From TrEMBL:
SUPFAM superfamilies associated with the record: Citrate synthase (SSF48256)
GO molecular function: citrate synthase activity
Cited Pfam families: Citrate_synt
Protein name listed in UniProt: Citrate synthase
Sequence intervals crossing the membrane: none
This protein's UniProt keywords: Acyltransferase, Transferase, Tricarboxylic acid cycle
Catalyzed reactions: oxaloacetate + acetyl-CoA + H2O = citrate + CoA + H(+)
Domain of life: Bacteria
Pathway: Carbohydrate metabolism; tricarboxylic acid cycle; isocitrate from oxaloacetate: step 1/2
PROSITE patterns cross-referenced by the UniProt entry: CITRATE_SYNTHASE
Family assignment from sequence similarity: Belongs to the citrate synthase family.
């Protein structure tokens, strides 16, 4: 892949020739691996211009607002494929035949139950525990139940772990919600769709038959798809780094959940709803727009901006359309949507946001849809984590299949004290 060379002139050294590698799409990369031998490290806090790996799973063009999963545009997948089809595509690289899809769906829907002992993990949490705190703990603990398939170098073991995680995340997520409201856990119903079963476990009660609303089911499935994967974002990079040490997949996914929880990342949907509730009415928007511009004010418009998208987030466009469909079809007049629409209109016409290229991202609309569906704000990021589990698994799997794979171990620019003598306490 290297037919171009970058020549680096370092002080007092012979010019260093660094290979330039080209991929299928997107910027070329400069292979800097030999720089270490020249006594240099690269320096790129936040990895703004650093490629951590080769990948064929997802491609993003932030300037053009392009998002492809295995080459398929997100808008086509979100409107023409089910989430489980997208899971198959992310995991195996190609769209499944009808027979392949039927087998994949059967496998996913027959691993939905969790070990009965896991119920006791929940008892250790306070009822008001944040569901993300529960998910970090319980997902990581799953490795204690599956000693039979934890050899990460065994492809079959990796595949069964993928099914167990994909199948059980909705069950555990719904359990974390039910525990918080003091209702009994609902057993999965394998005859329902993936999204339908999740809604059943979330909102069903043992005392009556739960009817899945097809509009809500479709919106939920689309939210899962729009959050399924997103290249080397913070939580996916966390999963890759944890996996590079050989940690088991359940521990790696738990690390991904922890990283996603941050308000700058997956926690933004919850933070965005709280922000809309704090704004409260259209006439208070200008006050918050000014706060967002104020360098001395830590406030940021949650749901706006993106490290990669310096144009529109293609997921936000599909999410916006879904948002209007759901509210229209469910006849919900959510005053927060009026605030969100006016905030979007003002932000998109404001010179600061235009100059900084701050557009609504995927989290801006997802929160409004989930609120309309009746999902509590504290569950928003849990649903993001559930949806992203397939992306984390696909990247974890790709990393372990890469022959060049090594343990991730970045270096640093050391700015601390030079070597000095230590004076023992009794002499200080
Ligand atoms: C997700 O990586 C991914 O792909 C993530 C994700 C995925 O699917 O995995 O897409 C999911 O995390 C979406 C992003 C959700 N986060 C939010 O909505 C939180 C609000 N957004 C910001 O925190 C911020 O935009 C980030 C974290 C998303 C991106 O930050 P960057 O790329 O590090 O940019 P930055 O913080 O350096 O900001 C650039 C400038 C700054 O101003 P200057 O210092 O240049 O003067 O833009 C300003 C920032 O102050 N800015 C904002 C802003 N976001 C950036 N100002 C007001 N409101 C905002 N939301």
């Amino acid at each position: 892949m290297a037919d171009k060379i970058a020549t680096l002139h370092l002080p007092g050294k012979e010019p260093v020739e660094l290979p330039i590698l080209s991929g299928t799409l997107g910027p070329d990369v400069i292979d800097v691996r030999k720089l270490g031998a020249q006594g240099y490290f690269t320096f790129d806090p936040g990895f703004m211009a650093t490629g951590s790996c080769k990948s064929s799973i997802t491609y993003i063009d932030g300037d053009q607002g392009v998002l492809l999963h295995r080459g398929y545009p997100i808008a086509q997948l979100a409107t023409q494929a089910s989430y489980l089809e997208v899971c198959y595509i992310l995991l195996y690289g190609e769209a499944p035949t009808k027979a392949q899809y039927a087998e994949f769906e059967r496998m996913v829907m027959r691993h939905t139950m969790v070990h009965e002992q896991i119920v006791y993990f929940f008892r250790g949490f306070r009822r008001d525990a944040h569901p993300m705190a529960i998910m970090c703990g319980v997902v990581g603990a799953l490795s204690a139940f599956y000693h039979d398939a934890l050899d990460i170098n065994n492809e079959q073991h990796r595949e069964i772990c993928a099914f167990r995680l994909l199948s059980k995340m909705p069950t555990l997520a719904a359990m974390s919600y039910k525990y918080s409201v003091g209702q009994p856990f609902m057993h999965p119903r394998n005859g329902l769709s993936y999204a339908g079963n999740f809604l059943h476990m979330m909102f069903g009660v043992p005392t009556e038959e739960y009817k899945v609303n097809p509009i809500v089911e479709r919106a939920m499935d689309r939210i899962f798809t729009l959050h399924a994967d997103h290249e080397q974002n913070a939580s996916t990079s966390t999963v890759r780094l944890a996996g590079s040490s050989g940690a088991n997949p359940f521990a790696c996914i738990s690390a991904g959940i922890a990283s996603l929880w941050g308000p700058a990342h997956g926690g933004a949907n919850e933070a965005c709803l709280k922000m809309l509730e704090e704004i409260g009415s259209v006439d208070r928007i200008p006050e918050f727009i000014e706060k967002a511009k104020d360098k001395n004010d830590p406030f940021r418009l949650m749901g706006f901006g993106h490290r990669v998208y310096k144009n529109h987030d293609p997921r936000a466009q599909v999410m916006r359309q879904t948002c209007h469909e759901v509210l229209e079809e469910l006849q919900i007049k959510d005053p927060l949507l009026a605030v969100a629409m006016e905030l979007e209109r003002i932000a998109l016409s404001d010179a600061y946001f235009i100059e900084k290229k701050l557009y609504p991202n995927v989290d801006f609309y997802s929160g409004i849809i989930m609120k309309a569906i009746g999902i509590p704000v504290s569950m928003f990021t849990v649903i993001f984590a559930m949806s992203r589990t397939i992306g984390w698994i696909a990247h974890w799997n790709e990393m372990l299949s890469d022959p060049d794979q090594k343990i991730g171990r970045p270096r640093q620019l050391y700015v601390g004290a030079s070597e000095r003598e230590f004076t023992p306490l009794e002499q200080r």
